Amino acid sequence: MKNASAVQKGRPREFDCDEALTAALRVFWQKGYEGASLTDLTEAMGITRPSLYAAFGNKETLFRKALDLYERDKLAYVEAALAAPTARGVAERMLRGAVDLMTGETDPNGCFGVVAAVACNDYCATIKQDVLARRESSTAALIQRFERARDEGDLPGDVDPTGLALHLYAIMQGMAVHSGGGCSRGQLDKVVETSLKTWPSR
């Protein structure tokens, strides 16, 4: 006869891990790592603390899994943007993809990455370092794409790919802040159009 602990271990979870993780992502997106309490998370996920620990580990591990989900599901437009045939096309896809993300009806406004990076104090420095490392990886890919565009003659020879990539991300982060503050999609679209008008061309 199986003992109680063996039966407990063999029981399937009574919740959908993907749905619970999606709910946790929304909480972190709205409140940041520090602002999201375990009570906030468990209530949104519809699970108990023991279930959270059993399925996802601690709060830090849950946050990293939420980051993975965000990059996989919400930032897919970035990879598609890098495949655009021109540097301007890359920028336009990046900017418009960001606007779509920031103004969607099912997710919080703004950018989860920006919220996560700015809402961390010293005691959760490892979380901030992880967020920034992921951002640096994305920035490096964009710099490399602009370097190729310059070498191929798609961008002027005097353009600094690093500065251009950082400029583009600064615009996107600024839009994220404004979106989180209630800026409308129409207003963000104007930022995109103005940015594209100033794009360097040969």
Quick structural gist:
With 202 residues, the protein is mostly helical. It folds into two domains: 15-71, Homeodomain-like (Arc Repressor Mutant, subunit A, Orthogonal Bundle), CATH 1.10.10; 75-202, Tetracycline Repressor, domain 2 (Orthogonal Bundle).
Description:
The protein has 202 residues and is mainly alpha-helical. The chain has two domains: 15-71, Arc Repressor Mutant, subunit A; 75-202, Tetracycline Repressor, domain 2, CATH 1.10.357.10. The chain has eleven helices and no strands. It has helices at residues 4-10, 17-35, 38-45, 49-56, 59-74, 76-82, 87-102, 112-118, 125-151, 161-180, 185-197. Helix 2 (17-35) crosses helix 5 (59-74), helix 6 (76-82) packs antiparallel against helix 7 and helix 8 (112-118) packs across helix 9 (125-151).
Radius of gyration: 20 Å
CATH superfamily descriptor of the largest domain: Tetracycline Repressor, domain 2
Give the biggest beta sheet.
none
Helix proportion of residues, in percent? over 70%
Strand element count: 0
Shape: elongated
Low-confidence stretches: 1-12
CATH fold group of the largest domain: Tetracycline Repressor, domain 2
Mean pLDDT score: 86
Report how far the terminal alpha carbons are from each other: 79 Å
CATH domain class name of the largest domain: Mainly Alpha
Give the total of domains. Answer: 2
Strand coverage percent = under 5%
Structural class based on helices, strands and sheet pairing: mainly alpha
Number of helical runs? 11
The CATH architecture of the largest domain can be given as Orthogonal Bundle
How are helices and strands ordered from N to C? Answer: HHHHHHHHHHH
